[in-house]
Amino acid sequence: MAKEIILGIDLGTTNSVVAIIENQKPVVLENPNGKRTTPSVVAFKNNEEIVGDAAKRQLETNPEAIASIKRLMGTDKTVRANERDYKPEEISAKILAYLKEYAEKKIGHKVTKAVITVPAYFDNAQREATKNAGKIAGLQVERIINEPTAAALAFGLDKTEKEMKVLVYDLGGGTFDVSVLELSGGTFEVLSTSGDNHLGGDDWDNEIVNWLVKKSKKYMILIQKVIKWRLQDLKKRLKKPKLIFQIKVFLQFLYHF
């Protein structure tokens, strides 16, 4: 009888990860492309559902490619694709189902249970939506864990006997959150959490792009002014040789006349 395995899933805004415990250590499972992270992107094309790296490649060309769905979790908003409206948890479920599928191939048998991480500041509606996404994907969600707490567990902080307070940062592609944990006797308590749903790596990228666009516009205006000035200067410089040429032609005409 196969040993029961519970998947550990980081359902991220930009990328997602699935891991299992082997020899009491977390092991990240690679996706079919040999990568440890899978883009949290779902695309629809010709009634076909595409998830992960292949879907990400369609973000710029396919209007029905959906990314950053995590930011809508727990809301009443929907996304339109494949001629229907999808709830955020339905899109997230397709990402979870994909992770589950390739995890099962790696493990060699079916897996039905999972623990899913969420940002520390997620409210009850967002946590319930995440749990529902797992259910739609065919997973029994054993627990929803805060991402900073999961990070502390991954680093084995729960195994230390020292008493200490630890500040855990989680800066992802779409979210940023932080938790203060108090460790004591091999257990820890979350003292405080905070975060921002729109302060991730993607937001930094967007700000840099916007900054470059503004700068390039200023430079383009400057370049246009320089080009205009140089053209005027060039015209002035051309007038002299043009006049000399005209005089030479006129003198040759007089000579032949």
From TrEMBL:
InterPro entries: ATPase_NBD (IPR043129), Heat_shock_70_CS (IPR018181), Hsp_70_fam (IPR013126). GO terms for molecular function: ATP binding; ATP-dependent protein folding chaperone. Gene3D superfamilies: 3.30.420.40, Actin, Chain A, domain 4. The keyword Phosphoprotein applies. Keywords: ATP-binding, Chaperone, Nucleotide-binding, Phosphoprotein, Stress response. The lineage of its organism: Bacteria, Bacillati, Mycoplasmatota, Mycoplasmoidales, Metamycoplasmataceae. The gene is dnaK_1. It comes from Mesomycoplasma hyopneumoniae (Mycoplasma hyopneumoniae). Belongs to the heat shock protein 70 family. Coiled coil: none annotated. SUPFAM superfamilies: Actin-like ATPase domain (SSF53067). Pfam families: HSP70. This is Chaperone protein DnaK.
